[in-house]
Write a structure and sequence with these properties.
- The chain folds into two domains: 174 residues, P-loop containing nucleotide triphosphate hydrolases (Rossmann fold), CATH 3.40.50.300; 68 residues, no CATH class.
- By secondary structure, the chain is of the alpha/beta class.
- The chain contains seven helices and ten strands.
Length: 257
């Protein structure tokens, strides 16, 4: 397995006392797979991303990538969030290159530019490489953010609701962009989302977390295949899968402490 969580528990210390968010959570993601995680708001989904990325250490249990325990931030992990957080004083090309300046200092600037341009072309932003972030639409900025998260060829890609702030049409467009990146790039992905359609369209499997403190409540294998289209979201099988996930979310919401 590429990513493993073994009996992970975590809590945060607040003024009013401790707040348990994860309890004996275990799951694994095989190499090259795309796993979506859904659950009630506040159940600990984003905490999982911080544990896998090494930004947070679990109070109990282990998080492993490639059989190595995650103890600190790893350069082999790429991340994209709801807010692209692009630097306004850098053009899009230089924003995409930024991770290479941090983790690949021995690579020439020409090589970095070549890699960034490959990704920008892949997502339809080749002609905007000299633009500033403020000159692009929200969807275009998120495409640039995805390029930045992949430019250093990470083993693991973590997406924490990267399409949540976009309108419905732009979101669906970005889903298709994500599928293109999935086919062209080699990575294992964890997607955090509240959108069940997004989870089914992008992922190979969907994990439903219980209410807080969260553990694994349900797992759904997605059978859409690699050449899935938006129309596949309206088939009888997908409709049934969505109904199952909605029911599981209802159960999870009732179990929140």
């Amino acid at each position: 397995m590429h990513i493993e969580l073994r009996n992970v528990s975590h809590e945060f210390t607040l003024e009013a006392g401790s707040l348990p968010v994860l309890k004996d959570l275990s799951f694994s993601v095989p190499k090259g797979r795309f796993t979506a995680i859904v659950g009630p708001s506040g159940c600990g989904k984003s905490t999982i991303t911080r544990l896998v990325s090494g930004l947070l250490k679990s109070k109990k249990g282990e998080v492993l990538i490639s059989k190595e325990v995650v103890k600190s931030p790893r350069s082999t992990v790429g991340m994209a969030f709801q807010n692209p957080v692009l630097l306004e004083w850098r053009n899009i090309l230089d924003n995409v290159i930024l991770p290479l300046e941090i983790v690949s200092k021995n690579i020439s600037r020409e090589t970095k530019i070549k890699r960034a341009r490959e990704l920008l072309k892949l997502v339809g932003l080749a002609e905007f490489e000299k633009s500033k972030p403020s000159e692009l639409s929200g969807g275009m900025r998120q495409r640039a953010s995805l390029c930045r998260s992949l430019v250093h060829k990470p083993e693991v890609l973590i997406l924490d609701e990267p399409f949540g702030a976009l309108d419905a049409f732009t979101r669906e467009d970005l889903w298709q962009t994500m599928l293109t990146l999935k086919k062209q790039e080699s990575f294992t992905c964890i997607l955090i989302t509240h959108d069940l359609r997004e989870a089914i369209f992008l992922a190979d499997e969907v994990l439903v977390l219980s209410g807080r403190p969260a553990s694994l409540q349900f797992q759904l294998d997605v059978k859409l295949g690699d050449d899935r289209k938006l129309d596949d979201l309206y088939t009888n099988e997908t409709t049934k899968s969505l109904a199952i996930l909605r029911k599981q979310i209802e159960i999870a919401q009732k179990s929140m402490i």
